[in-house]
Amino acid sequence: MLDHLSELLHLITRWAHLIAGIMWVGNSMLFNWLDRNLERPPDAKPGLIGNIWMVHSGGFYEVEKKSLAPSQMPKTLHWFKWQNGITWLSGIALLILVFHLAASSTMVDPEVADISPRLAVLISALSLPLAYLAYDLVWRTAIGKRPALATALTIAVVVAASAVYFSYFSGRAAYIHVGVMIGTLMTGNVWLVIMPSQRELIAATIEGREQDPAIGYQAKSRSVHNNYFTFPLLFIMLSGHFPSTFSHPQSWLVLAILALSSAGIRYLMNIRFENPRWLFPAVSLFISGFLLTLVVISDRDILGSRLPARTTPVPFGEVADIIHKRCTTCHSSTPSDAVYRAAPNGVMFDTPEQIVRKATDIQQRAVTLRNMPLANITGITREERAALGAWVEQGALGPETTETTKP
């Protein structure tokens, strides 16, 4: 019963996160597109920044962007804030459900850092607000008036936080935490900069005061930041379903290349009409990054990650011993793992037949991708991975008898 309730909670939280995220990102991209395509007519009235005509849903829309005169407040004003709030809150809830509550198996990898689950959760909880405080400090001080330097320092903040994650967490946890950290920077921008700036503009209008252009510029600046954060964040959200990224020996390099490339796509979409001379360099940069990523992902032995060679025959008894010692804590009809009370995806290795039947998957997950055992919680060695790989390459032969092998 508890397992079913837990699964339902995960499902509902993911569903809310997905829907709110679509609405938030969709609104963000729409308003950034509007800003880039507004046209200012020759006979524009005072306060009109620009307008645009669009056709959709069987009708025509005219959208104007303007500065309101003092006391000129419309009766109904629509805000866009809860999409972001719900996206971030549901994302934090997923972080707790998937990672914090199962930190020993999802966050801690002894091959990366032999730390306690409690310390891993503490690093996770403290790093998010600290990263935002460092980023916000850069842009609120005099440094923020020098965009090039402030941008470089922003990248440095992201890289520093990412270095902490990749130094202490498993590959998948590191990826997700980089994504959550970027999402936290974006959410902080919305609730601590953009929203207060909008409230001040509204208050000035209601009270009959002149609007301060610097306040609007500050909100617009952070909105642009969020615009460029969006594509790397979306990639990281998807990466959890592709072990070839986060389980790669140089997973940080894969993330860096794809994050920069995806930000480059966002830049390309932003400048394709305003600065067409940059179109070819931007496309070339993206293609180069994509091809470089393919090279890195396809060669897991790059930068010295090759497993030790195993040239001698590997008997099934040795394979069964490795499987039962390293895998059947979860993949069994009676798991002993504290988190997984049922075999994940129904995969079990209690009998020789089950082991031989899954030989290809064993090679893929334990030898090629090396993302199993999850977070290497059972401490499989490189030599054991090499033995499993050699066994498959030698034909994945089973035992002479089909008697059930005891864990």
In short:
The chain has 407 residues and is mostly helical. It is 62% helix and 4% strand. Helix 4 runs parallel beside helix 6 and helix 5 runs antiparallel to helix 6.
Distance between the termini: 27 Å
Range of helix content: 55-70%
Secondary-structure content class: mainly alpha
> Which consecutive residue ranges, at least 5 long each, have pLDDT under 50?
401-407
Order of helical and strand elements: HEEHHHHHHHHHHHHH
* Order of the strands making up the biggest sheet: 1-2
The rough form would be described as elongated
Q: How large is the share of residues in beta strands?
A: under 5%
Mean pLDDT: 85
Query: Total helix count?
Result: 14
Number of strands: 2
The radius of gyration is 26 Å
The description of the largest β-sheet is: 2 strands, antiparallel
Relevant terms:
407 residues; mainly alpha; two-stranded antiparallel sheet; 14 helices; 4% strand; elongated
How would you describe the overall organization of this protein?
With 407 residues, the chain is mostly helical. It contains 14 helices and two strands. The protein has helices spanning 2-37, 82-99, 103-106, 117-140, 147-168, 171-207, 213-239, 243-246, 251-271, 279-298, 316-326, 352-357, 359-368, 382-393; strands spanning 48-56, 59-66. It has a two-stranded antiparallel ribbon. Strand 1 and strand 2 form a beta hairpin. It starts with a helix and ends in a 14-residue tail after the last helix. 30% of the residues are buried. The model is unreliable at 401-407 (pLDDT under 50).
